[in-house]
Amino acid sequence: MWEECDCLMRVRIWTGGVLVCCMAFVMLIVNWNSDKQALLIPQVTPIEESKTIDTEGTSDQQSFVASVREEAFDYNQISADEGVNIRLDSDPMLLGNYVSTLIPKRDETITFFFKEPMNRSSVEQALLTKNSKDDSRFYPQLLMHWSSDRQLHVKALIVQTKAELYHSFNLITFGALTQKGVKLTSGSFTGTIGELNQLWKVSSDGSQKKQLTSFQVPYWIEALGQSDTTFLLIRSLGYCQCDRESAKFTTVYDAANQTQTAYPVDIQIVQSYRGSGSFVADRRGFFYELSSKNAIDFPKRESAVTFNLPYYIHGASFSKDGRSLILLTGKEDQTHDFTMRIVPLDPKQGQETVIQTKLQGKLHENEANGHILPLTFNDDGKKVYFTLRGENGIEVRYVYDWKKGSVESWNPPIDPMNWAGFQTSSDGRFRIYANGGLYDGDLPLKNSFIGWHEGFWIPNTHEFVANNLSKINAETLIVIPNEKVKLPTESMLLKVSKDAKWYYMSTSGQIK
User: Fold this and answer.
1) What is the model's pLDDT at position 449?
2) Is 293 exposed, middle or buried (0-12, 13-18, 19+ CB in 10 A)?
3) What pLDDT does 58 receive?
4) Number of Cβ within a 10 Å radius of residue 414
5) Which H helix or E strand runs over 104?
6) Cβ pair 110, 88 in contact under 8 A
7) What residues of the chain score a pLDDT lower than 50?
8) What residues contact 353, with CB distance under 8 A and at least 6 apart?
9) In percent, how much of the chain has pLDDT > 70?
């Protein structure tokens, strides 16, 4: 998946001949001493027409050299096994030995920080390799400048390429040599052209459409909490077009004030938490574990509450009224007999309450990769619903009654082999189940509307709005089609405002 890189070099014939001969001799000795190690290096096909760039040759190169300089960097943070950290300069928090992320179609600068002084030509040769078998790669021209033997700046000229959406370019340092002759076995940056999603709001009657953002990087946008105007902007540090989980770089965006709060990669923002008892619960609707110095020292807002609890958290959710956390707890390696607890966000509101111990069932797993998932509680204000996994994959279903203060078995009208997730209308009367359609209480309605669960109940109504902005009236079972708003194919309904007047949406296209 890599495109050809047109690199220029001015070489004086006599001097170049001597240098080439010397380098050939040195490389012969190095290769003779490292045959066994070389077997560990992935085989790549060099681009025959690519050459090392003359740092003084072109106007583009001269401008690039003038724009960069050596930076102060803590090289001790690079492990000896990795040997290199790579940073996307347009988003400096995207830093690591392996970085793969979505980028816009624009020129990008990437900086390589090496633990040891490097053999420069071997690094450049590694970066100018080509995988000729992959048609989805493109190969931008690269401008390179060494500000020291441990710091290399690379500019990828992406705009001038014919790269299409979801095409990628890759820069690797596998096989590059330190000045002591040690070969690197890691170090990779992949940039994949992504869509520029923007946040929109559309009036419920379809008469008004307003684009709220003009983001210049490809964020995945998620609704956050119960506020109308807070959202998560997410970039992956290990993006792939697959089900693999990876670290994410997350920004909290306040659409009302147009402010962004970026959290470092080692602070993983989640809306369903599983981790140690030392964590932050932010009333805006998210959690993060206090697992690093960065997380501990990161400035806390007034909305953030720090917890240091003496047990492992297997699931944490905010109560609907926002006053408490609902927790499933135990030991880190515990697989059954969990404990449910209610913990006030404000200690003045009371003490922790143990609701029930020895809850039967195991935690659910991600079907794609087998990773254990945090348990999520669904609180409708009167009752809290949650499920664990029993034998043979069936769901073990529970309901907690806020008034009774007790947990009981829950028997929804859904086959126990299927997920019983649902959304409920504001008054709790109607539900739409992901695997069961529309219900009035426990009564299935004549037209079940299976497949309509990707949407939201409009507050204080019995209408459900789907992702395409069509609506169901649960009382009359009448479908109200969307005839006023033209949505791009890749559009997503994120939330409905509390006053039911606005729909917030994410799309890379234009809403008309």
Assistant:
1) 75
2) exposed
3) 77
4) 19
5) none
6) yes
7) 1-55
8) 341, 342, 343, 405
9) 87
Neighbours of 167 (CB within 10 A): 19
Residue 35 has φ and ψ, to the nearest 5°, of: -60, -45
Minimal CA–CA distance to 378: which of 269, 271, 253? 271
User: Token pair of 196, please?
Assistant: 């520029």
pLDDT at 24: 40
Q: What is the 3-state secondary structure (H, E, C) of 45-87?
A: EECCCCCCCCCCCCHHHHHHHHHCCCCCCCHHHCCCCCCEEEE
Token readout for 123 is 């690094």
C-alpha 144/C-alpha 152 separation (Å) is 7
DSSP string, 443-460: EEPSS--TT--SEEEPTT
Q: How far apart are CA 409 and CA 394, in angstroms?
A: 14
| Alpha helices (H) in 216-287, listed in sequence order | none
User: Given strand 395-401, what is the order of strands in its sheet?
Assistant: 378-379, 383-389, 395-401, 406-409
Instruction: Give the integer Cα–Cα distance in Å for 191 and 169.
Output: 6
Q: What single letter denotes the amino acid at residue 386? A: F
3-state SS class at 439: strand
pLDDT tens per residue across span 76-102 = 999 999 999 999 999 998 999 999 999
89 phi and psi, to 5 degrees? -65, -25
Q: Which two tokens stand for residue 21?
A: 């001969």
- β-strands 188-193, 98-103: how paired? parallel
Longest dimension (CA), the chain: 91
Q: Which residue in 505, 502, 507, 478 sits closest to 204, CA to CA?
A: 502
Residue at 91: amino acid letter: D
* Per-residue pLDDT, 54: 44
- CA distance linking residue 461 with residue 204, whole number of Å: 13
CB 86 within 8 A of CB 112: yes
- pLDDT of the residue at 132: 62
